[in-house]
Amino acid sequence: MTDLNNMPANFIKNIINEHQKSGRFGDRVHTRFPPEPNGYLHIGHAKSICINFGIAADYAGLCNLRFDDTNPVKEDVEYVESIMADVRWLGFDWQERLFYASDYFEELYGYAIRLIERGKAYVCDLSADEIRDYRGTLTAPGRESPYRDRSVAENLDLFRQMRDGVFQDGARVLRAKIDMASPNLNMRDPVLYRIQHAAHHRTGDKWCIYPMYDYAHPLSDSLERITHSICTLEFEDHRPLYDWLLDELGVHHPQQIEFARLNLSYTIMSKRKLRLLVEGGYVSGWDDPRMPTISGLRRRGYTAEAVKDFCERIGVAKANSFVDIAMLEHCIREDLFLKAPRVMAVLRPLRVVIENYPEDAVEMLDAEYNGENQALGTRQVPFARVVYIERDDFMEEPPKKFFRLAPGREVRLKHAYIIKCERVVKDEATGEIIELRCTYDPDTKSGASPDVRKVKGTLHWVAAEHGVKAEVRLYDHLFLKENPEEDDDLTANVNPHSVSVITDCIVEPVLAGAAKGARYQFLRHGYFYADPAEYQPGAPVFNRIVSLKDSWSKMQKSGGGK
Ligand code: ATP
Ligand code: MG
């Protein structure tokens, strides 16, 4: 038996705890994650996955993976496969419980026959427009269809003919017979089946009638003996129909529970809209590192741990709200803080010649990988007469608070020595700075003596001859606005500078041998991922997962958190 006292509470668990006390489902907790395979999963789905699989785990219960594949024209096996890969990547396991709503088409048809026999469903010949028109509005009641009182025998006969392919698409539908005056529009004789002569990715041409989501979903839950059918808030108004169907049929009746969907700033959360970005060429694919899809986050370099931690922190609530994307970024920083080796990469190189360092000498310096985590060990970093530093780390006329390199100034090169800028070499024609001439102080080797003098700035650097060329991609928000959907034209809002590719970075030699999929902190630049789709040993490509600037944790500290 689950120890209920040791669990962080949320309103879903409170409901389940009540059921455990009353014995409504005995001891059982059985949930499901029910995606429609019409696109790749996004971070909103990750929340739903974590809730459904997480609750099952907390109560030593079960969670099914079920594809809600009732819409043949929009669905595809590519999506089925990507969804399974994403759920697995997050670390969840449906064991042998992989189901498809299409597996139940025969049973669903049988239930429809039962409803007809009980006078609870009828075949309606109104067109889609007429049905909408007859439905009424929130303020005006609906009107009954002229076909509503067909006899059971006629309904059975027509429904069988629908299945047999006698009629064209849209000619007839099967509707529940509930109440055209109900204040809830979903209860005004909702459509249960439509005619659609389309091949289904699993059932092929076997069917030309397909069940509606609102019909297939509760019955699929019931057939799988789900106890708690957890879904997002927009289904709250559909719950009366969910309950009506199961009660009328007298079958196993799960409890539907709704929670608020995740909305993330600078992001959209809809497979349909994400597909527009893919098809319109705004991104390179569903797994573009800028996409809020699980596959995009994975390719960007996010870890499953960080995504799950994020889902844990946002919690489950009943009210819709926006979550700051900075919080997601905070989670990956936290995850990589101790795990990632810290190395040096110069993204925009400026050549530095250390004039008093011997021409042919090379020193191998011991450098720890992570000052916060000694367990990551050390590597050797070559130091020589010519090194690269970051172009931004030098200013000829520095403002007051600039503590990096400037003429006559000293800085420390990380893991190495203190250097002093003696002279600036410029391109005579353009005036561009092409090289710095510096000297080093041999008595200031890092770690050699505890009381070497201190300087204010410490710069990362890479020895010119030993460094490896690398390509680095820096990412920004995919959309310009915090709420990209506040405009009708979503695509007008796409950030034209959401990626910058820098092709001539110089990184430490150790990175030439980095494994595909390895993650690093590049000192002062952020966390980077050796993108397995692009990465070639010897010619490394890195995605920046996230910069080091943590605006979310700053907001929390200053009390300005949302
Ligand atoms: P989309 O509009 O992106 O296709 P959907 O709700 O139609 O979303 P489904 O494939 O039907 O997508 O979703 C599977 C499950 O994921 C559902 O239970 C749904 O409620 C949940 N879900 C979808 N989007 C979110 C979100 N943003 N936050 C939390 N849960 C979500
Ligand atoms: Mg959907």
Structure report:
The protein is about 25% helix and about 25% strand. The protein has 13 helices and 28 strands. The strands form seven sheets. Strands 13-26-27-28-24-25-14 form a seven-stranded mixed sheet, with helices on one face. Strand 20 (about 420-425) and strand 21 form a beta hairpin. Residues about 1-5 have low confidence and may be disordered. Adenosine-5'-triphosphate binds near residues 35, 47, 68 and 262.
Helical fraction equals 25-40%
If helices are DSSP runs of H or I spanning 4 or more residues, what is the number of helices?
A: 13
Q: Describe the global form.
A: elongated
Q: How many E strands?
A: 28
Kindly report the spatial arrangement of strands forming the biggest sheet: 13-26-27-28-24-25-14
Radius of gyration in whole Å, from Cα?
31 Å
Q: Average pLDDT across residues?
A: 94
Small-molecule binders: adenosine-5'-triphosphate, magnesium ion
pLDDT under 50 segments (min length 5)?
A: 1-5
- End-to-end Cα distance, whole Å, is 38 Å
User: How is the biggest beta sheet arranged?
Assistant: 7 strands, mixed
**Strand fraction band?**
15-25%
Category by helix and strand content: alpha/beta
What keywords describe this structure?
binds magnesium ion, binds adenosine-5'-triphosphate, 7-stranded mixed β-sheet, 28 strands, 13 helices, alpha/beta, 562 residues, elongated
Short précis:
By secondary structure, the protein is an alpha/beta fold. The two termini are 38 Å apart.
List the helices and strands and how they pair.
Layout: H1 11-22, E1 24-27, E2 30-33, H2 43-58, E3 62-67, H3 77-89, E4 98-100, H4 105-117, E5 121-124, H5 128-135, H6 152-163, E6 173-176, E7 191-195, E8 209-211, H7 213-223, E9 228-232, H8 239-249, E10 255-259, E11 262-264, H9 271-279, H10 294-300, H11 304-314, E12 321-323, H12 325-339, E13 342-343, E14 345-346, E15 349-354, E16 363-368, E17 378-383, E18 386-390, E19 410-413, E20 418-426, E21 433-441, E22 458-459, E23 461-463, E24 468-475, E25 499-507, E26 519-522, E27 526-530, E28 541-546, H13 551-557
Parallel strand pairs: 2-3, 3-4, 9-10, 11-12, 13-26, 15-21, 19-22, 24-28
Antiparallel strand pairs: 5-6, 6-7, 7-8, 14-25, 15-18, 16-17, 18-23, 19-20, 20-21, 24-25, 26-27, 27-28
Residues 34-36, 44-45, 47-48, 68, 231-232, 261-262, 269-272 line the site of adenosine-5'-triphosphate.
